[in-house]
Design brief:
about 240 residues, binds S-adenosylmethionine, Rossmann fold, alpha/beta
Length: about 240
């Protein structure tokens, strides 16, 4: 189901994900901004604004270059920890918080979301931006998130999706499946990484299935909110 891999069928998904994000780390932010027409930060802001429990401690899972964590520092008063398996992405994240003088609010750790180095019930909120699709074992990762959230703790998850309106969907699929991979390959010089993106979205559980999975893990009040005509899905839930 989430076993789509970037490079080959032999090596494990996790190792390939580490290699891929290390390869594209330096161009990740500029490509994200360009390919989303500058909407990526708006999506993160919309997600953070859904956190309604005034969190004091937030975990940003699959933090990458740290933009979700930085966004959370703007719109909450929380201390934030971001974890990721890619050193290359974390290097960029660390440079950013140093530049922005945010090192007292945000800390980045190398860590696997499927086996987290945190105690049960440690966080008031968890954010995950464009990360869960890349987990090797989706259920394991979601169970771990559930474990480290405290009771009534809140989670917001962003994932790419497709518009529901037929004409827009057709046009967007054309862009997402054919144009985006070409631009991504040109700028990042890793063709496989930006072909993996549409393939991994296509094989990720559909919105309804993902809601079902979150409920199965134990999350309550699971909500799905389509953003920008549905090109991104925002899932909100509580423990
Ligand atoms: C598309 S990037 C998203 C980065 C960031 N959250 C954002 O909003 O731009 C996906 C990130 O997930 C990380 N990742 C994938 N599997 C992971 C895992 N099991 N544990 C921690 N990080 C993981 C990758 O290394 C990568 O940095």
């Amino acid at each position: 189901m989430t076993k789509t891999k970037p490079y080959n069928s032999k090596e494990g998904k996790k190792q390939q994900i580490i290699t891929m994000f290390n390869n594209i780390a330096t161009n990740y932010d500029i490509l994200n901004f360009t390919l989303s027409a500058g909407l990526d930060n708006i999506w993160r802001k919309q997600a953070v604004k859904k956190l309604s429990n005034n969190p004091k401690k937030i975990l940003d899972v699959a933090t990458g270059t740290g933009d979700f964590a930085i966004c959370a520092s703007k719109y909450t008063k929380a201390k934030i920890i971001g974890i990721d398996i890619s050193n290359g992405m974390l290097d960029i994240a660390n440079q950013k918080i140093k530049k922005k003088n945010l090192s007292k609010r945000i800390r980045f750790n190398e860590g696997d979301s499927e086996d987290m180095p945190f105690k049960d019930n440690e966080f008031d909120a968890v954010t995950v931006g464009f990360g869960v699709r890349n987990f090797e074992n989706l259920e394991k990762g979601l169970n771990e998130i559930y474990r480290v959230l405290n009771k009534e703790g809140e989670i917001v998850i962003l994932e790419p999706s497709f518009p529901t309106k037929k004409i827009f969907k057709t046009l967007y699929k054309l862009y997402f499946n054919f144009i985006l991979p070409k631009i991504g390959a040109l700028v990042s010089r890793d063709g496989a990484a930006y072909s993996y993106l549409p393939k991994s979205v296509a094989t990720f559980p559909k919105n309804k299935e993902f809601i079902y999975l979150l409920k199965k893990i134990g999350f309550k009040k699971v909500k799905y909110i389509p953003l920008s005509f549905g090109i991104v899905s925002l899932f909100v839930a509580i423990k």
